[in-house]
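Lab notes, practical 5.
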Amino acid sequence: MAARMENVEEIRNRVILGEFGVTNVHTTDFPGNYPGYDDTWNVEKFQKNFRIDVVHLDENSMEFDMVGIDAAIANAFRRILLAEVPTMATEKVFIYSNTSIVQDEVLAHRLGLIPIKADPRLFEYRNTGKEEGSEIDTIQLQLKIKCSRNPRASKDSSDPRELYLNHMVYSKDIKWLRPGQELDIVMHCVKGIGKDHAKFSPVATASYRLLPEITLLEVVEGEKAERLKQCFSRGVIDLEDINGKSGFT
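Output from the prediction step:
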């Protein structure tokens, strides 16, 4: 019975990679799924087994391991990040002047996809059909810039960065122009979620992968151990000193 229980525990906690596909990816932790195995929900047991390990974190990306849940729950987190986490994005663009080569519709679309660095928790959702915004549901941004020639540019230069002033439009002032072209724009940014429009999605992409478990069937030593370690990402396999030799089990 002990061996049987150990086998059930291994099956219900692992996704199996077979020769022709992946199996056991569906949720199995519910009572009665495995005869003789008590799979009743226990919040204390879940809290003990579940953990989140942050692997990498910076301003643009985050990688973390969720240990103690199955693939279905991991995928649910991915879908929540894509579609349910609110952000601020440009909803309306009022173009008063646009003499650039970019059409109004294309320019408005690009402005709408620029990430807005604002905490959505500080704002309310804007009511449907409401024409005028307020300080509690709308951020008003203005882009007013004009490109001109640089009088100090060298006559032999062909670099636009030297020939023109304000020829590039960045998100800090919003620029992409040639001499004589001008933009005078007001943008209204509102709160929304990714399932309504992709511009509200807080992530460029969100994905998950299964946490692998590597089991060696024999001791690997010496040069073979070094070569095997190089086959994996850093930190997956560590070498140990076994009787004066480099190896691991």
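Observations recorded by the TA: The CA atoms of residues 29 and 39 lie 6 Å apart. The longest strand covers residues 87-98.
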